[in-house]
Design a protein that fits this description.
This protein is mainly alpha-helical. The chain is 55% helix and 0% strand.
């Protein structure tokens, strides 16, 4: 997406520390918020799921 759409590039691995995974989680969620903004710019709806099972059920049926 970076090359084709000009979306910001993220380097999450710089935050990886196996002994402190909450930092990685927080940075990942921040990145996802930025992707939500990108979707909004092009009028795309963001689907949200509270469990992996809901996500799986949605995509396996579509």
């Amino acid at each position: 997406m970076v090359a084709e759409k000009g979306t910001k590039k993220f380097d999450l691995m710089q935050y990886f520390d196996a002994s402190d995974l909450p930092v990685m989680k927080e940075k990942f969620l921040e990145m996802m918020d930025e992707y939500v903004d990108e979707y909004g710019k092009v009028g795309r709806e963001v689907k949200r799921f509270t469990t992996f099972e809901q996500l799986y059920a949605h995509y396996i049926n579509h």
